[in-house]
Amino acid sequence: MTTTRRRGLALGCGFAIAATMLAGCLQNPNAVGGGGAAGGGSVVDNAETDGDKVVTVMGAFGGAEADAFRESLAEFEAETGIRIEYNPDSDFTNLIRLRTSSGQQPDIAIFPQPGGLLELAEQGYVEPIDTYLDYDELDRTLLPGFLESARLNGRVYGAPMRMAVKSIVWYPKAAYEAGGWNTAPANLDELAEVAAEISATGTPAWCMGWESGQGTGWPGTDWIEELMLRMWGPDVYDDWVTNRIPFNDERVVAAFDALGEMIDAPNNVRGGRSGILSTAFGDAMLPAFADPPGCYLERQGNFVTGFLPEDVQANLDEEVGLFIYPPAAEGEYTGQPMLGGGDLAALMNGNDPDAIEVMRFLTSDRFGGPWASAGGWLSPHSTFDVSLYPDEITRTTAEFAASADVFRYDGSDLMPNAVGAGSFWDGMIEWLQGTKTAEQVTTDIQNSWPVDDSAKDEGDGS
């Protein structure tokens, strides 16, 4: 979950030529039938003029991020003569629905979570990417598995233009290295050994906080998602987040149990269960930079550096160490997964060649240089030039992501809102408090799953 929550064959070549905006017959190897939109046979369109060298884009990010986004488009605009009008709105999720229902959708929308994109794709308002992008080339340069987050009924309807990663463990560099502990544990067993060594010194190994106001509990969902990926692999993970297997499946219960063993190990987590629930997620790692440290390790997304003390932020490369949250030592899956998220660009005007040209640039590894240099942005492409990032911390984070065997989007962002931002959060609190067992919590969450959303992608081959 993010800190700001809500929530066959491609088109035939003959149709592509008739539509005039397709450069060849670009095939999605996983597509399952013709039609420009889900269940439809025509190219999606809006009320805006086509081919006028103006492309409207709508997204959720504003302020300095919007400025960096526009700067990253400037060279493209100068080369192509296309003017890109970016309109941000913090209420993007609701506004894009309203604008679309009234025929006022932009040429391109940038979705912070897949749910809204897939909702509009299912209604026929989003063009599948295999009709205008080289799917195979895009899939080659992206982190493996990224496109799965935008798949509906076998076709993909959006592509990422930036990435966030979560499977990172952070530590106070000087104090941790002075302790002589492993800075690159190869698997979860080695990581558990590191934690046991730290705990034996009298200082808790892990920093952890799940308090987040009305969103309290969401950091716990990330832990379960991480463990589901590592214990059972991406295929089971996909089945779980789409409810093709029930939420109270024994494998999900096992992930809860594994997290419980970690939390309840003596002196392993600062404050224990009660401390976790009363500690704000943004404050969780602050004790690590005290003298002496009050804990050492935190597993959290790349955004966590923004919550560190100002003096630490001013010198991240010297103050902060990191390693990738490692894979399982043995079992169903031993590959290295990466959990994360990203902003997904979607074409809502398939008849506009200018909008298609912008989409090709936005979703390529050529986009984002100025934004990367400004900080706070990661490319979802393993082929992006990492020398453009402003510091070693960011470069290392990007390299961890690029080296992963598979990428999977944050599970609670993929689930129906009533679950991913509702019963799942609540269940993590009840489980942590000990008022309900893992079996009870997972059964409650399963019972809360909207019937119409369950297993909607069944049989899509993903």
| Total beta-strand segments | 11
The overall average pLDDT, rounded, is 89
Helical amount: 25-40%
CATH superfamily of one domain: Periplasmic binding protein-like II
| CATH class identity of one domain | Alpha Beta
* Tally of contiguous helical segments: 18
How far apart lie the N and C ends?
22 Å
What class do helices, strands and sheet pairing give?
alpha/beta
CATH level-3 fold name of one domain:
D-Maltodextrin-Binding Protein, domain 2
Which CATH architecture of one domain would you pick?
A: 3-Layer(aba) Sandwich
Dominant shape: globular
Order of helices and strands: HEHEHEHHEEEEHHHHHEHHEEHHHEHHH
The largest sheet, given as strand count, sense and whether it forms a barrel, is: 6 strands, mixed
Query: Any low-confidence stretches, pLDDT <50, length ≥5?
Result: 1-40, 453-462
What is the strand content? 5-15%
Rg over CA atoms, rounded to whole Å, is 22 Å
